[in-house]
């Protein structure tokens, strides 16, 4: 360590929000270069390469072949698939000195498709799975959490090419199983959840999430069955329609001093004439209507009105997943001025819809079915309508899955209750279908001699994100704690004694013998560094086995202390047996 490019820090960096970011910086693994960009120091690069090695080994074992593309790509293929526009502001665009447009690749579907188009000509060459481990670029608006959300990151992306949908199912399952093996080797806890495909396109889609509170992905899991889904992919169970016969008429009432759902519910329940016939009104009986602008990649802006039960808020991730590639932005004061029929805070269905006064498209939550009655805005200040009935008094233009999911909601699979959890996305697999093959005119000669369009799958692993996720999953109160296969060394060897004492020569000899035995040794041979600092650094750096050449070296029968970083357990081992003991400890 005396010659290692390493500087540990006692204090947390001011911009670090999550444990992995704080400790990777403090332990000398990474350094921030720019927002969303990090440099790797030797220890961090060693861990990264170990993760990359595991990823490569698992992909090779699954039968995929490795290729490599540049990160700087021409505009034209992305124009053909529409993604030059669809990616919007997330895409890094640039021009060369001749004015030709290029991009820094966020993903490489187009390139893989064109490579196969160039080389593969017959069904006999399929199925085919190819992959790369490559740096990606996305112009994140708010990079955060260290390596968890960056502008430059490394992904393993692989693609399968099959002649039939049945073949795609087999390739998809092959990659799914490879991912299970991969994440188990990395020591990462994971759940597999249904997901949305987003800008990637395609049909079936699943995410591998590592359950952690610092994760940006929210998912639900059933308390009874094995259903699990990212909130963006959750489908709301639709209640049955209610017979309209006998339902009371809707009535508009003055409702002063009711600026919130809570005050509105209290107001109507306090008036016997307005109370529900057999129970109190609740927030879930109110219909909250809000308007957003959809900003499309081509620059056009479209207003959209959304109606949801008042006990819920709009989940912006769910909304954006539905309207992608458009971006949902709040409706501002200037927007309201363009639509005088909208009474801010009292918007009701009466003016919403393509055929009504505003002409604004109106989509509602799936729970708003025919016969459901609501308290909602009456399109006038301090006025609400009570008993407004869907299918009789208003008809929306359609439905939208945009309301937040709440603990206790109904499971779409078995009707039990669901619970909410958070996780880090570490892998994502898609059945892309023929979208990219058709856009880029990829075809092969089929068994019947006629042209056939292959169907594709796309499978991604966030390599750098996995490193942060492993750090998050294994940290404790004193530092990092790497799984052995990923650690930057097998043994962290500490020399704890006077500079002229017997500890230094004993530690130097032990380090040489351990390396000769095939172990990777991080040897703390620094001078003028106190034992306390050495121990603290060893705990911070997180090598799984710590060996200390200390006072035991001076005994008649010299010993070293061997400590397990994770459990804290330690034992004195005879120096003569130290190499054999450590080799056995560090060998799977």
Structure report:
It is globular, with a radius of gyration of 30 Å. Strands 3, 7, 8, 9, 10, 11, 12, 21 and 24 form a nine-stranded mixed sheet that branches. The protein has 588 residues and is an alpha+beta fold. The protein contains 14 helices and 29 strands. It is 25% helix and 27% strand. The longest helix is centred in the N-terminal third of the chain and has 21 residues, at 165-185. Strand 18 and strand 19 form a beta hairpin.
How does the SSE layout of this entry go?
Layout: H1 19-26, E1 30-34, E2 37-40, H2 42-61, E3 65-66, E4 72-74, H3 76-81, H4 83-86, E5 92-95, E6 101-104, H5 109-119, E7 128-137, E8 152-162, H6 165-185, E9 191-194, E10 205-211, E11 217-222, E12 228-230, E13 251-254, H7 261-270, E14 286-295, E15 301-309, H8 316-323, E16 327-330, H9 333-338, E17 361-364, E18 373-377, E19 383-389, E20 398-399, E21 418-433, H10 435-439, E22 444-445, E23 451-452, E24 455-462, H11 463-474, E25 491-495, H12 503-516, E26 521-524, H13 531-541, E27 545-549, E28 559-564, E29 570-574, H14 578-586
């Amino acid at each position: 360590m005396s010659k290692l490019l390493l500087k540990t820090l006692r204090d947390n960096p001011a911009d670090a929000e999550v444990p992995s970011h704080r400790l990777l910086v403090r332990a000398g693994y990474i350094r921030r270069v720019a927002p969303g960009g990090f440099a790797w120091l030797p220890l961090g690069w060693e861990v990264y390469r170990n993760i990359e090695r595991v990823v490569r080994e698992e992909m090779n074992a699954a039968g995929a072949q490795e290729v490599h593309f540049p990160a700087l790509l021409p505009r034209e293929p992305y124009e053909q698939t529409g993604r030059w526009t669809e990616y919007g502001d997330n895409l890094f665009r640039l021009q060369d000195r001749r004015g030709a447009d290029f991009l820094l690749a966020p993903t490489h579907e187009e390139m893989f498709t064109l490579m196969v188009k160039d080389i593969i000509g017959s069904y006999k060459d399929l199925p085919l799975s190819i992959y790369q481990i490559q740096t990606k670029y996305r112009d994140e608006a708010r990079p955060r959490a260290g390596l968890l959300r960056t502008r430059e990151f490394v992904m393993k992306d692989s693609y399968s090419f099959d002649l039939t949908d049945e073949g795609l199912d087999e390739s998809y399952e092959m990659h799914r199983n490879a991912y299970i093996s991969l994440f188990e080797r990395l020591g990462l806890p994971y759940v597999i959840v249904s997901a949305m495909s987003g800008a990637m396109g395609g049909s079936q889609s699943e995410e591998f999430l590592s359950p952690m509170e610092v994760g940006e992905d929210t998912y639900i899991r059933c308390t009874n069955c094995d259903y699990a889904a990212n909130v963006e992919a959750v489908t709301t169970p639709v209640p049955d329609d209610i017979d309209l016969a006998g339902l009371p008429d809707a009535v508009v009432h003055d409702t002063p001093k009711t600026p919130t759902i809570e005050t509105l519910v209290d107001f109507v329940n306090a008036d016997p004439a307005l109370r529900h016939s057999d129970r109190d009104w609740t927030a879930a009986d109110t219909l909250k209507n809000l308007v957003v602008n959809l900003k499309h990649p081509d620059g056009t802006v479209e207003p959209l009105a959304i109606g949801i039960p008042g006990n819920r808020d709009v989940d912006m991730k769910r909304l954006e997943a539905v309207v992608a590639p458009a971006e949902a932005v709040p409706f501002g004061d200037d927007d309201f001025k363009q639509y005088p029929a909208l009474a801010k805070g009292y918007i009701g269905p009466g003016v919403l819809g393509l055929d009504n006064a505003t002409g604004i498209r109106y989509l509602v939550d799936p729970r708003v079915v025919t016969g459901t009655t609501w308290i909602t805005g009456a399109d006038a200040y301090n006025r609400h309508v009570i008993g407004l009935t869907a299918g009789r008094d208003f008809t929306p233009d359609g439905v939208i899955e945009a309301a937040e999911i709440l603990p206790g909601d109904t499971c779409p699979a078995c009707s039990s209750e669901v619970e909410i959890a958070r996780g880090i996305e570490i892998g994502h697999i898609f059945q892309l279908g023929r979208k990219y093959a058709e856009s880029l005119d990829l075809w092969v000669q089929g068994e019947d001699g006629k042209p056939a369009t292959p169907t594709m799958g796309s499978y991604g692993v966030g390599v750098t994100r996995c490193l942060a996720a492993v750090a998050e999953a294994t940290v404790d109160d004193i530092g990092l704690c790497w799984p052995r296969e990923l650690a930057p060394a097998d043994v962290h060897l500490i020399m704890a004694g006077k500079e002229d004492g017997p500890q230094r020569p004993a530690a130097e000899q032990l380090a040489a013998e351990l390396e000769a035995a095939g172990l990777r040794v991080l040897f703390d041979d620094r001078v003028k560094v106190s034992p306390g600092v050495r121990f603290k650094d060893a705990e911070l750096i997180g090598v799984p086995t710590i060996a200390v050449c200390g006072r035991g070296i001076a005994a008649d029968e010299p010993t070293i202390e061997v400590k397990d970083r994770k459990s804290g357990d330690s034992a004195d081992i005879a120096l003569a047996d130290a190499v054999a003991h450590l080799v056995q400890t560090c060998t799977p």
